[in-house]
User: What shape does this take?
Amino acid sequence: MPDYGEEMIDLDDQSSYEKFDPSGLRWRIQGMPAQCSQAWSEARKAQFPDEWQHCTEVIVAGMGGSAIAGDLAADLAGRGSGVPIRTVRDFRIPGLLSETRPNRPLKPEQLVIICSFSGETEETLAMFDHARSAGSAMAVITGGGELERRATDASIPIMTVDATGEPRSAVGYNLLLLASLLDRIGVINVSDQAVAEAVEAAEVMVAKVGIAVPEETNLAKSLARDLLGRLTLVYGGGNLSGMALRWKAQINENGKSWAFAELFPELLHNTVESFPGGPEIRKRTTALLLEPHQASPELERRYAVLGETLDQSGIDRRTLTGVPGGPLTQSLSMIVLGDHLSYYMGLLNGINPSETPSIDRFKERLSSSDSA
Assistant: This one.
């Protein structure tokens, strides 16, 4: 097992990147805005059945970096959407109406979108088979693999993720493909102008937190150093609810560090009760509050009260507010900030942020168990 943080890393020394990031994850992170533009352009060429415009629920099924697009898309829909978006991470998809209503109307009530970058994820393939056997309306977003083969054989519409690297590095592509599909069937409203503005905001964020920006003026670098060796709690609400889950996962995978995520307003009904306890834990904990730009009045009050409660409990906290603009603009810029933050944490821990040896060992153990 690696020993993290034994070597002092200078984030302004370019040799650190060559040493700990030989695969070039840094370039994939900084290329996220361009990835989004490409995905949106390609997605507009796709064709979908007209009857999908009558669906009453969207289910996004996937795992890890492929599933997070479902949470982020739900944030784009917001409270004003008449069609709920549900993300499922499992082997089966609960509540498929096609299983319980064999004489259902011809118009689909649910649309199941299966997402897998590799196309080989065991749980996702199982959910694909479940939805197909139930006769659900389906689409697939994938980079290839077995999922693409099964979808092709079943004549299920496929949107291709044309990106390289890790599944988590393709989040921009996944999100924009999914957003385009949902826009086309009337579940959310995302215009070409909104995408252009969001991509521009993401590029501005890259210019602020990229590897060439010195640590003294680079929020992502300085915050990564502050979080090193600490427990990170990521709190999000409103149109940054899914973002809290994204940051948590990136700090785990890229940063090789402990992090947990919770959402407003639920955390105020349980989590806050734990703040007074465990003085040693409090000393080593930092809470990151991801607050939407121009949040609703009721949500703003809850962020304010949580901040006061953390201060009174002696827990370090930072509030990071979304940039001005619509939900997609805030989402893409926050993805860039969180990805860079977690990447720098991995470097500071003295380990390749791209590799995921523990996840790989877990999959190998499962594979050997299944074949035994």
Q: What stands out?
A: The chain has two domains: 14-19+198-348, 29-190.
